[in-house]
Design goal:
Length: about 220
């Protein structure tokens, strides 16, 4: 087995953990919103499961940086120097560390600071992939063929959509604290449902983009 084949396997494995586990997150989210059939404590348990399952997609997303850049280099799609590949791995591992530190920190000031750092990193990576793909489509370099450049653009859009999920989901934390302290009420449940539904739109966008990027990578249509 060649290094390229190993990297392709690694890339597919990350995609499986990302999209597959995300479906579990979506199912848990749907059950959490069901205030008629579950008590508040039962819904909190479901939410804990959701957060745990979500670590799979978040970890896979972080490692995708190393995976994509390594594939470009080893596959001969882009003449990336060794230091460039090493930098991609450093960024991936640093992001992976951030993801798990945020998870462990919970709802603390430390977690808030780490989340700001992660958000800056996400925007920078979104700009990188969008810029790389758009430039390559316009100039036929450095990424060729065009399906690969288009894949880079879509990957950048996945970043943007996933960032929107996090932004839309921010008000959920304070609403959950209200739910725990005051119990379930029509007003709290309505606000919570509205907030979570706003993030669901971007979840669906992310799913569509993930399928599109997988289709391009598999079929290489142009």
């Amino acid at each position: 087995m060649t290094p390229y084949e190993l990297l392709v396997f690694f890339h597919i494995l990350l995609f499986v953990f990302w999209l597959g586990a995300d479906l579990g997150v979506a199912i848990c989210g749907a059950q959490f919103r069901n205030s008629r059939d579950y008590s508040v404590q039962e819904r909190m348990t479901i939410l804990k499961l959701l957060v745990m399952i979500d670590m799979g997609p978040r970890s896979a997303w972080a490692l995708m940086i190393a995976g994509t850049v390594s594939l470009l280099a080893v596959g001969g799609y882009w003449a990336i120097p060794v230091w460039g590949v090493a930098l991609a791995w450093a960024i991936s591992l640093f992001w992976l560390w951030l993801v798990w530190q945020i998870h462990g920190a919970g709802q603390t000031p430390e977690a808030a600071g780490l989340k700001k750092m992660e958000m800056v990193l996400k925007w920078a990576l979104a700009a990188f992939y969008l810029g790389l793909g758009t430039w390559s489509l316009a100039m036929d370099a450095p990424l060729q063929p065009d399906w690969l450049a288009a894949k880079s653009v879509i990957f950048g859009l996945i970043f943007a959509a996933a960032i929107m999920i996090d932004l839309m989901f921010r008000p959920v934390g304070p609403l959950l604290m209200t739910l725990l302290s005051e119990g379930s009420s029509a007003a709290t449940e309505t606000r919570l449902l509205h907030t979570m539904n706003r993030s669901r739109f971007w979840v669906r966008v992310t799913y569509i983009l993930l399928v599109a990027v997988a289709f391009l990578g598999t079929t290489q249509p142009f």
